[in-house]
Amino acid sequence: MDDSPSVPPSLRIRMKKLFLAALFFLMPFLAMAASVQPQTSLAMVGDALYPADFAHFPYVNPDAPKGGMLKLGATGTFDSLNPFIVRGQPPFGLASGTMSLVYESLMTRGWDEPFTLYGLIAESVEVASDRSSITFNINKSAHFSDGTPITSDDVMFSYQTLRDKGRPNHRAYYKKVALAEKLSPTRIKFNFKPDDTSGKKGGMIDREMPLIIGLMPIIPMHDWQNRDFNQTSLRIPVGSGPYKITMVDVGRSITYERDTHYWAQDLPVQRGLYNFNKIRIDYYRDDSVSLQAFKAGQYDLKRESDPAKWATSYDFPAVKEGRARLERMEHHRTEPAYGYIMNTRRALFKDPVLRAALEYSFDFNWVNKNLFHGQVKRVNSFFPNSELAAPPLPEGQELEILNAYRSQLPPDIFTDPVTPPEAASQEEFRDNLLKAETMLREAGYKIDGDMLLTPSGVPVSFEIMLSDPSEEKITLNWVTALKRLGIEAKVHTVDSAQYQSRLAAFDYDVTANKWSNSLSPGNEQMFFWGSAAADQKGSRNYAGVKDPVVDALAASIPNAATRDDLVAASRALDRVLMKGNYVVPLYYLGADDIASWTRIHHPEQMPLYGNVMESWWGSGS
């Protein structure tokens, strides 16, 4: 501002006023800019568990010896080394979310926290207070396996390529970026659009986007820029991760070898991980062949997903002799919400009384005892096995949330637990069937011979669509119980392609399926339960839920500012959904069943999410 004598006093006063007004207007923005400081971690809500100077994660052995070979088994096949497109089937370990050996992301997860990232390729980040932008500061030591430094050009290329040509999840999320800016060879900034999934303009910023970009895999521009990204490829890729591919027998096996010049091997987030010199993965035709190969010692570790098989098929000599071990490793991550989903788009299942009665008709105790040897637990929440599951009755912050919708909710949601009916014996199960019969009779349903009729006189019958033959035995037991109520249910198992087609088109009465939630739920809840998603073919609102209270609760979860807010909102949503009786709940395990040969070892401490395969080690030779 010019204070020279040549400027008239009146103009000088006016200029000062304009300057002060402009300064007043800019102060919030200047304060915001000043408050954005580099940080080495980023949590979805709250603060990271570990400080900037932590030495290593507590669920690893930092002194684990390096060396040896880890042999793993997989079922199926693979035919491509490009894991970022829909075409082709890539091998395990190339760029999976939980064990990525070749490709890395800007940041990496800590498995002892719901959703927190720590610096990897990006040594630090700068995040706007409203999460509208994030700037990544690339570690100047970061380089690809061929020695080429990682720069903001590689990050920009990865973002643009995956946004335009990557898998559907990459395309959907990365299109929420309003602008990507290269600030320097080692600095790049992403600015985000307001979320418009609600259909309203001027929505809030998706608070999860900075973390989603932090998990973006970084691919080398120099290795890909002159090739067709949309094609499958068997060309050995260049990555920045701890391993390089050294041998490929297409469809049969793949061998990864530890990169002795791996740039991040001494970072705290990588210490104690990736201890084997080689990792070989052999592919088997089916799980039965794979199990026999494991018992014969052809590979080192097998994770069993079938509780019945775990109880009956692992009693082999090496276990008795102490050369192999069977471990049930409990965890505290959210298990899938698995059950028989009733399609409320069908006229029959619009009736909440019928849906509630059907929950009484499933004999979980018999199924658990006779088919799973008492090893599984009943799904009692859409967030089972976690703190997000609604407790027996609402209290504290959850109760405050529900009170805001009290006039739109049934009164007993505040006084009665919403957990599924229990029956510890056949006598109690008969009582449950009598309760179901009474509920239906009082709602106007009638018995005509051995057939249950709706209040309008239509026989109660439906089809149960399955995709897995192993689900048939459980389902037929339910069908038998339904018949005792006068309900005719038919089981139809279809192939995978037909199942996916019918699922996407909501062409089913009842189907067995699941929702997989993390410990940090977010915008996906609107796609699971939102009214708009109910009419969107291919969405995961399988039940066709259309409820304004559910819409409001699901929309509130991504905007939670603290962990307590997130937990309370999730519990409130869980309670309302459970009260809706959209699903006949099935089962979950709550642990990882892992069989391994004693030539390999793992740390004693397990993190929140359970077993971390990268933390195992061998003899060191």
Descriptive report:
Helix content is 28%, strand content 20%. The chain has 621 residues and is α+β, with helices and mostly antiparallel strands. It has a domain at 337-588: Dipeptide-binding Protein, domain 3 (Roll), CATH 3.10.105.10. Strands 21-20-22-16-23 form a five-stranded mixed sheet. The longest helix is centred in the first third of the chain and has 27 residues, at 9-35.
Q: How would you sum up the global shape?
A: globular
Number of strands: 25
Helix content: 25-40%
Q: At CATH's second level, what is the architecture of the domain at 337-588? A: Roll
- Name the CATH homologous superfamily of the domain at 337-588: Dipeptide-binding Protein, Domain 3
Q: Which structural class best describes the helix and strand composition? A: alpha+beta
How much of the residues is beta strand, in percent?
Answer: 15-25%
* N→C terminal distance: 73 Å
Query: Which sequence of strands runs across the widest sheet?
Result: 21-20-22-16-23
CATH fold topology of the domain at 337-588: Dipeptide-binding Protein, domain 3
Rg, nearest Å: 28 Å
CATH level 1 name of the domain at 337-588: Alpha Beta
* Largest sheet data: 5 strands, mixed
Number of helices: 18
Mean pLDDT: 92
Low-confidence stretches: 1-5, 28-34, 197-201
